[in-house]
Amino acid sequence: MKRSIYLLALALGASSAYAQETILPARPQDKPVYLTNAVIHVGNGQVIENGTIAFVKGKITAVGAGVSASGDATVLDMKGQHVYPGIIAPDTKLGLVEFESVRATIDAREVGEINPSIRSIVSYNTDSKVINTLRSNGILLAQVTPEGGLVSGTSSVVQLDAWNWEDAAYKTDDALHFVMPRLVDISLGHGPRGPQSKDPLKEALERVEKVRAFFREAKAYLQENKHAATNIKFESMRKLFNREQKLFVHCDLVKEMLVAIDFAKEFNMDVVIVGGADSWQIADLLKQNNIAVVLRQPHSLPLMQDDDIDQPYKTAAQLQKAGVLFCLSNEGFWQQRNLGFEAGTASTFGLSREEALSAVTLNAAKILGIDKIAGSLEAGKDANIAVSTGDMLDMKSSVITRAFIQGREVNLDNKQHQLYEKYQQKYGIK
């Protein structure tokens, strides 16, 4: 009897061990790598036919058509394939939410309305099964963003191949997030910002003034040489007032964006609009005030009933024409894997193909403050590289065959791919 129980336990343990994921973070790059004979999309608008890109110890050392391999380097022939900078996903709950229907797996918000001291990075879960599905579509960096309340806390940029959040951290506390109350009731009583009161405009303006008053108090506190007591919330605002950190204002309508511009002027802050559905209407004003836009959810219906039905698709091109710095984002966390394809859609509504690529690579890096080390395939930057058999922005032709994060070749397997192969075998179609 004991022997039977032992054998059963051993079998269950073996089965359990076999079922565990074997997708591990890659080891640091140990010798030079050359990707040759590729079509290289630099990310800044430049395309190099039959080019070579070299990287050593995680950094790109050379890019061009006349680069030759030397020494004991690993040379990979990419003939017929396309090489891109890794896509960057801003404004995402990746690693903060695993199952939206299971409360225990949600760690994206804190109680209370004003929480500038909350840091999303310490809640980032590098073991999330969703991360691998993004990498397999060429998304290699993400801005992990808290939500909820009025001032939600700070986001951080992470690279998507790490053992823990400390390893993942690419740029910590890059921005503080302010969720603007809706100043126009377009939700017929209930919408994404909750039920409305009898006088929603008055209530929304009161909440905006609550945040403005908090900012004024924080600024006054930080100008004092000595404090009777330390205020953690005020202390956490120091980088914002020093312009070491940006203020990301989540809003869509013109009136809300005008308030955001007022905040930028009053507090001398570097402000970024997140959402920006109506940003095309005031593109010139945004340009004048040097306000960037994280354009959220291009695949959606218009926000207002009298907008053109294709307005969300063409807004990116209108911002590009006006000279506004913008990038693309996708709402949620698992949806981020389609970000490249949404850029492809934008390219059919006015953007060129390379402008659309920049909207999810170099532009995003500029807005997140990491463009000196990421966002394009240029010498001196991190080797965050995706290789595709076709156009990475086209759902039909894009197949990511290799990906490198800081020079490390990462595993592109994921749970969904494993299930796909499992049922191919079950039904004899492989």
From TrEMBL:
- Which InterPro entries has this protein been placed in? Amidohydro-rel (IPR006680), Metal-dep_hydrolase_composite (IPR011059), Metal_Hydrolase (IPR032466), Metallo-dep_Hydrolase (IPR051781)
Coiled-coil segments on the chain, per record: none
Pfam hit, one: Amidohydro_1
Q: What GO MF terms are annotated?
A: hydrolase activity, acting on carbon-nitrogen (but not peptide) bonds
Xref: SUPFAM superfamilies: Composite domain of metallo-dependent hydrolases, Metallo-dependent hydrolases
- What range(s) does the Amidohydrolase-related domain occupy? 347-410
The protein's matches in Gene3D superfamilies, at most eight in alphabetical order, are given as: Metal-dependent hydrolases
Q: What is this protein called?
A: Amidohydrolase family protein
| Signal sequence bounds | 1-19
Q: What is the lineage of its organism?
A: Bacteria, Pseudomonadati, Bacteroidota, Chitinophagia, Chitinophagales
Instruction: Tell me the keywords, alphabetical order.
Output: Hydrolase, Signal
